[in-house]
Specification:
This protein has 352 residues and is an alpha+beta fold. It has 3 domains: 149 residues, ATPase, nucleotide binding domain (Nucleotidyltransferase, domain 5), CATH 3.30.420.40; 92 residues, ATPase, nucleotide binding domain (Nucleotidyltransferase, domain 5), CATH 3.30.420.40; 69 residues, ATPase, substrate binding domain, subdomain 4 (Actin, Chain A, domain 4, Alpha-Beta Complex), CATH 3.90.640. The strands form 5 sheets. The chain has a 5-stranded mixed β-sheet, sandwiched between helices. Strands 13-12-11-17-18 form a 5-stranded mixed β-sheet, sandwiched between helices. Strands 5-4-6 form a 3-stranded antiparallel β-sheet. Strand 15 and strand 16 form a beta hairpin.
Length: 352
């Protein structure tokens, strides 16, 4: 009895000490970017999901921003890999290496206790794909892994009252997937995940320039065009941009000028698909929750939410108010970070 009492005292003294050595992490494992939130330091990693590999040795040459800078600029034996495609793991081993690097960077020092990790995933991925995410994290030295849905984390990160009995419609447009979800009382009433998002828009721009101008451009240039002059609805002030690439006919560097209306037309198919998914969500939402959504409006998060006039286009087609989150790029990881301190809620919304 005396020994048990001493043990309890010792454990109660040890817990605060152990918590200093364990840093729980929340990870938004995105197709385009990976963000890591630490309970101790907030968002500590915000880098592209890219790894540069030396194919002769198999060694990692660079990860994150440094690897992305190498895209299209490496010698033949160095390959820049994006290990995630459409929101899921396409290359298991490279994802494991990337996660290990980001986890070590987030912790900044060696720890005595491996971290518990919360990872956000798209809503409609398969059991095999879920297992791949979990195993990658465990192999990267995680002590415990919890999978949560991106749309739920985005809603929490955007400050929506998800625990209340009322409908919240959140649209998360990332690099590989777009998630549309109606959330009420800490649960997802309706959700849909589509593999039409930012990367699909970049490909559409690159294909248009190839078809119309016989101009070959890289993915970084396509993304830059989308950010600078891409739009979903007519702009108040027309924009144009000089684009440099390689002529497919002559094989030499070439420059063309394109305007916002051309790019808007190029993106129209992707935008229409996203708007169609929002309309479908509204049609399938129970009447009581529909009334809540009508009052509260639609919350846009993710990098795609920053596409010029996307909110205006959605407002025009649905008749509802549309709000862009304060920090759309980091909403998911901020939401996952918030539930690191609320394990009761985490257990309730965790997929596994």
């Amino acid at each position: 009895m005396h020994f048990d009492w001493i043990t309890r005292i010792s454990l109660s003294n040890l817990r605060p000490l152990l918590s200093l050595f364990s840093a729980d992490l929340a990870i938004d494992l995105g197709t385009a970017n990976t963000r890591v939130y630490s309970r101790a330091g907030g968002i500590v990693v915000n880098e592209p999901s890219a790894v540069a590999l030396d194919e002769r040795t198999g060694e990692v040459q660079a990860v994150g921003q440094e690897a992305k800078e190498m895209l299209g600029r490496t010698p033949a034996h160095i390959r820049v890999v994006r290990p995630l495609k459409n929101g899921v793991i396409a290359d298991f081993k490279v994802t494991e290496k990337m996660l290990s690097y980001f986890i070590q960077k987030a912790q900044q020092r060696r720890t005595l206790v491996h971290p518990r990790i919360v990872i956000s995933i798209p809503s409609e991925i398969t059991e095999v794909e879920k297992r791949a995410v979990s195993e990658s994290a465990y192999r990267a030295k995680a002590a415990d892994v919890h999978l949560v849905e991106q749309a739920m984390m985005a809603a929490i990160g955007a400050g929506l009252p998800i625990t209340e009995p009322g409908g919240n419609l959140v649209v998360d447009i990332g690099g590989g997937t777009t998630d549309v979800a109606v959330i009420s009382m800490s649960g997802i009433v309706y959700s849909r995940s589509m593999r039409i998002a930012g990367n699909h828009m970049d490909e559409a721009i690159a294909n248009y320039l190839k078809r119309k101008y016989n101009l070959l451009i890289g993915e970084r240039t396509a993304e830059h065009i989308k950010i600078e002059i891409g739009s979903a609805y007519t702009l108040d002030k027309p924009l144009s941009m000089e684009i440099k690439g390689r002529s497919l006919i002559e094989g030499v560097p070439k420059t063309v000028t394109v305007n916002d209306s051309e790019i808007r037309e190029t993106l129209s198919e992707s935008v229409s698909t996203i708007v169609g998914a929002i309309r479908a969500a509204l049609e399938r939402t129970p009447p009581e929750l529909s009334a809540d959504v009508s009052d509260r409006g639609i919350m846009l998060v993710g990098g795609g939410a920053l596409l010029k006039n996307l909110d205006k286009r959605i407002r025009e087609e649905t008749g509802l108010s549309v709000c862009i989150a304060d920090d759309p790029l980091c909403c998911v990881v901020l939401g996952a970070g918030k539930i690191l301190n609320d394990f009761k809620l985490l257990r309730k919304i965790s997929i596994e």
